[in-house]
Amino acid sequence: MKVFVTGATGFIGSSIVDELLRRSHVVVGFARSETSADNLRAKGAQIHRGSIDDPASVLAALASVDGAIHTAFNHDFSTYMQNCADDGALLDAMAETLGGTGKPLIATSSTAVVPPGQIATEDQAASPAIPRGASERFLRFSETGVRTGVIRLPPSVHGKGDTAFVPAAIAAARRTGVSTYVGDGANRWPAVHRNDAARLFCDALERGEPDQRFNAVQDEGVAFRAIAEAIGRGLEAPVRSIPVDEAENQFGWLGRFVMADVLASSRLTRERLGWKPVENDLLADLELSSYFDPSVKALST
Fold first, then answer.
1. Both 16 and 48 in a single domain?
2. Does any domain span residue 297?
3. pTM for the full model?
4. Domain containing residue 181: CATH number
5. Could you read off the pLDDT of 212-226 as tens digits, one per residue?
6. Which of 195, 197, 188 minimizes the C-alpha distance to 226?
7. E strands along the chain, which residues?
C-alpha cells in the first residue's frame, strides 16, 4: 500500500514510518520543514509538504494514496481545548475526502476519553465531555465508505526519544530535587512502548474493520508511586508524597495529569488483531539511562 502519514517525524509517527517500510509499504511522509523532509528521504519515504495548520495541504495528499495514518497533533497544552477541536475538524475533512473509496483512515486518540473510575475498553465510546474525544467523531464516516479506525494511546508512550509525560515528571524532579507523587500514589497510568504502538497502527491499517477503536495498552495500570520511585532511582533523588494542593507547584502543567487514575484494557484489541506487545514495559524502560539524560527536553507549555 501507499500510505500517507502525518506526524511522520514525531515520536510515534517515526516508528510507524519505520514499521510501514519494514512491511514493504510505500510511505508518503507529511513534512512541515525541509529538515523533516530530509529525515524522511533518508529512510526511503516520499515527501508531501504542508502543515496541519493548513488543512488543504493535508487533504491534497489523499487522492494519490491507498490509506492514511494521522498522528500529528498540536501539543501546546495552553491551547489544548482548541487543539482537540481542530484535530476533530481535520479528521472529519479527511474522512469526507476519502468518502466512497473504502480506503483506511487510522487516527490517534487517548485511552482517557473514557471517564475515570472504570477500566477503559475498546467498545466504550468517547465521552462528549472530554475534549480529546473530538478525534473519534470521524469514525461515523464508516457509513460513507471509509474504513475508519482509532488507536487510543495511554498517558505514557515510552521508549528512547520520549519527551512527553514521564520526561516532564523527570524534569520536575530534577528542578525541585525531589521525585513526588500525590497522596498515596496509588492512581494508575496505562502505558505502551512506542514500537508496539507503531505495530498496532500498521495492523489496524492492514486488517482493521471499519468503525473500530483499538487500545494500545501493554501495562493496564502502573501506580504513579512506582513511576516516582523509578524516577528517584534514576536521578538519585529522594521520593516523597505531596498533598493535592502542591501538585501544580511541583509539576506545572503536568499537575492535572499526575493524579489521574485511568486504567485501560487491550483485551479486545489483542483478540481482534492478534496484537501482542513485545518491548520493555514502562518500569523496565525507566531503568535506562537515556530517560535521565539532562539534554532531553520534555514537553512544556
1. yes
2. no
3. 0.94
4. 3.90.25
5. 999 999 999 999 999
6. 188
7. 2-6, 26-31, 46-49, 67-70, 104-110, 147-153, 156-158, 179-182, 188-193, 212-215, 219-223, 239-242
